[in-house]
Amino acid sequence: MPDLRFVNADKLPPYIFSEINNLKSKARSLGEDIIDLGMGNPDQATPQAIVDKLTETVKNPLTHRYSQSAGIPKLRLAIADWYKRKHGVDLCIDKEVVTCMGSKEGIAHLSLATLSPNDSVIVQSPTYPIHSYGVVIAGANLKSVPLKENLDNFIDDIETSILKSVKKPKMIIINFPSNPTTQIADKFFFEKIIKIGKKYDIWVIHDLAYSDITFDGYKSPSILEVDGAKDIAVEFFTMSKSYNMPGWRVGFCCGNKDLIEALKKMKSYLDYGTFTPIQVAAIKALNECDDEVKHISNIYKSRRDELCDGLNRIGWSIEKPLATMFVWAKVPKKFENLGSLEFSKMLISEAKVAVSPGAGFGIEGDNYVRFSLIENEQRIRQAVRGIKNILGN
Ligand SMILES: Cc1ncc(COP(=O)(O)O)c(C=O)c1O
C-alpha cells in the first residue's frame, strides 16, 4: 500500500459546508424544492456586454495561446484606472498590479509565496475560509483574532495578540466588508491597521471582495487610500461578485511591490494566466460596466430588504447589513443549544431552506448562520414562510 499520509491535504479539516451541500442534494434528488441561500455563488447572468466581448475575442486564434500569468498589460491598466476612478489610488501596472485566477487562488498563493513554518499570521475570525487555510496550507501558524462589533476593540485585540507572540507575526489578513459577518469599516479603521502594521513591521493583506455591493449610501473604502499603505499592504479584489463573473475566474491584487513580486513569481511557476479572451472581457467590464455593477448591487439590496423585513416580521430579529451579498443572522434563542451546523440541517429538513452554518467560517461564528442573497424575492418570501413554521411565532 502506498503511503497514505498526505501532509498538506491532511492539515485541512472536512469542509463543513459539504455536509449541508450533501443534504441539499439528497433532498432535491427526492423531489423537494430547497431554496438555496447557502453558497455565495451569484445566480444572475454576467452582463451582456462582457459576454459579447468574450465571444468576439475568442474568434481570434491568437488569443488561444498561453496567456500571461501576471495578466495582460491592458488588463493591468484597466485595473489601475479602476482604482484611480473608484478610490483615487495611483498604481504602477508593472510593479503594483497582478491579476489572479480568481482572488481565492491569489490569496492562497500569496501565503504560499511568503510564509514559512516559523511564521505566524493574524487572521480575523470568523472569515472566508481561504484567509485562514491559505496560511495553514503554507505550513505557517494561524493566530485567529475574534472580530468584535466595535472595531476599536478588534484593533486592540490584534495589538495584544502581537505583543503576546513569542515571535512577531509576519502578516495580518483582514476583509471588510466582511464575509460572513457583513461588518463594514471606514477609512479611519484602515489608517489604524496600517499604523499598527508599520509600528511592528507586519505585512497587511486586505480582501476588498464586496466593495461594490453597498447600500443605503455607504461607500466602502480601499485600504490603499491610506497614505503610505503601499509600504506594507496589498489588497485583493474579485470580479466574481459585483460583475456576476464567478465562473470566469478573474481577480487581482494591488499594492506593495515586494508582495506583488513574490506572488507574480510564484504564479509564473504555477499557471499561464486566465484565458486571454476572458481577460479582454474583464477589461470591458472594468472600463465600461459601472452601471451594470450598480444594477447588480440594487438587486442584492432588494433581496436584503425582502429577507430582513420578512425575518423581522416573523420574530427573527435581524439588522440590515450595509454591504455584501449576505445576511448574518444569530441563531434564534430557542435553537441556540443546537449550534449552527445542526440548526442549518434543521432549516433544510424542516424549512426547506439551505444556509451556511456560521461555524464553517471559524468557531466564533457558531452562534450564527449566513444567508446568501442568491435567490429572487419571491423565493426569499417562500423561504421566510418555511422558516416561520419552525420558529412557531
Ligand atoms: C471575502 C471573499 N474573498 C474572496 C472570495 C473568492 O472570490 P473568487 O471567486 O475571486 O475566488 C470570496 C468568495 O466567496 C469571498 O467571499
Descriptors:
single chain, 2 domains, alpha/beta, three-stranded antiparallel β-sheet, 13% strand, 13 helices, 393 residues, binds pyridoxal-5'-phosphate, Aspartate Aminotransferase, domain 2, seven-stranded mixed β-sheet
Helices and strands, with pairings:
Layout: H1 7-10, H2 16-29, E1 35-36, H3 48-58, H4 73-87, E2 97-100, H5 103-114, E3 120-125, H6 129-137, E4 141-146, H7 151-164, E5 171-175, H8 187-200, E6 203-207, E7 233-238, E8 251-255, H9 257-270, H10 276-288, H11 290-313, E9 326-330, H12 339-351, E10 353-354, E11 356-357, E12 368-372, H13 377-391
Parallel strand pairs: 1-10, 3-4, 3-5, 5-6, 6-7
Antiparallel strand pairs: 2-8, 7-8, 9-12, 11-12
Pyridoxal-5'-phosphate binds at residues 40, 102-104, 128, 175, 179, 207, 209, 238, 240, 246, 251.
Account of the 3D structure:
The structure is a single chain. This protein has 393 residues and is an alpha/beta fold. It has two domains: 7-45 and 291-391, Aspartate Aminotransferase, domain 1, CATH 3.90.1150; 48-288, Type I PLP-dependent aspartate aminotransferase-like (Major domain) (Aspartate Aminotransferase, domain 2). It is 44% helix and 13% strand. The protein contains 13 helices and twelve strands. The chain has helices spanning 7-10, 16-29, 48-58, 73-87, 103-114, 129-137, 151-164, 187-200, 257-270, 276-288, 290-313, 339-351, 377-391; strands at residues 35-36, 97-100, 120-125, 141-146, 171-175, 203-207, 233-238, 251-255, 326-330, 353-354, 356-357, 368-372. It has a seven-stranded mixed beta sheet with strand order 2-8-7-6-5-3-4, with helices on both faces. A three-stranded antiparallel beta sheet has the order 9-12-11. A two-stranded parallel ribbon has the order 1-10. Helix 4 (73-87) packs parallel to helix 10 (276-288) and helix 5 (103-114) crosses helix 9. The model has no long low-confidence stretch (mean pLDDT 96). Pyridoxal-5'-phosphate (PLP) is lined by residues 40, 102-104, 128, 175, 179, 207, 209, 238, 240, 246, 251.
